[in-house]
Write a structure and sequence with these properties.
There is one protein chain. The chain has 175 residues and is mainly alpha-helical. The protein has helices at residues 4-38, 45-69, 91-112, 122-143, 159-167, and strands spanning 72-73, 79-81. Strand 1 and strand 2 (79-81) form a beta hairpin. Helix 1 runs parallel beside helix 3. It starts with a helix and ends in an 8-residue tail after the last helix. The relative contact order is 0.10.
């Protein structure tokens, strides 16, 4: 039972990587089949350029996930390294969002044409919103460290605290 958590992480990572590779291959094959063979008359040079440029980040993310999360085993089959957790919050979660959005845009562009590549603009907008919300959250977290008594933050008092204050009992201050 040694390294049970590492073995579970390795199994989860392997399943997630397999799913990512399968979906990516399916979506890219669908795009190539539809745009380059079935809808050939509407396929222009822009189709090739847009597909190459906008599918590259998804493939880059996919290969980066492969390099950091694939479990490593030695010659005897013993687990040497489980890899990074692909279900982690933060950057990994954001890259999953980019990957899923790219797959969606690629599928829509394959079905409905090159104009839908413009949906890819949402990713930088999402990045700006995510950075802003993170900055504002950190800023609000640091506001409590400024040494104020807490009244300026608009703290809400419970009914019990209101009754105690009404009776004239000394207000309890928390550190």
């Amino acid at each position: 039972m040694a390294n049970k958590a590492a073995k579970q992480l390795a199994a989860r990572n392997t399943a997630i990587l397999k799913r990512i590779h399968l979906i990516s291959a399916l979506i890219n094959f669908l795009f190539i089949l539809l745009r380059f063979w079935i809808f050939r008359p509407s396929c222009t040079r822009n189709t090739y350029v847009l597909y190459s440029l906008l599918a590259a980040p998804a493939l880059g993310i996919e290969f980066w996930f492969e390099s950091i999360a694939r479990p490593r085993v030695d010659a005897s089959g013993e687990l040497r390294r489980a890899g990074e957790d692909l279900e982690a919050k933060g950057l990994i979660e954001y890259l999953h969002d980019v990957l899923y959005w790219t797959w969606g845009v690629t599928t829509l562009a394959a079905l409905f044409g090159d104009r839908l590549w413009w949906l890819y603009v949402v990713i930088p907008l999402y990045s700006v919103w995510l950075a802003y919300s993170t900055f504002m959250g950190v800023r609000q977290g640091f506001a409590g460290l400024s040494g104020d008594s807490g009244d300026s933050l608009g703290a809400v008092m419970s009914n019990r605290q209101k009754k105690m204050e009404k009776r004239g009992v000394q207000k309890v201050q928390y550190r």
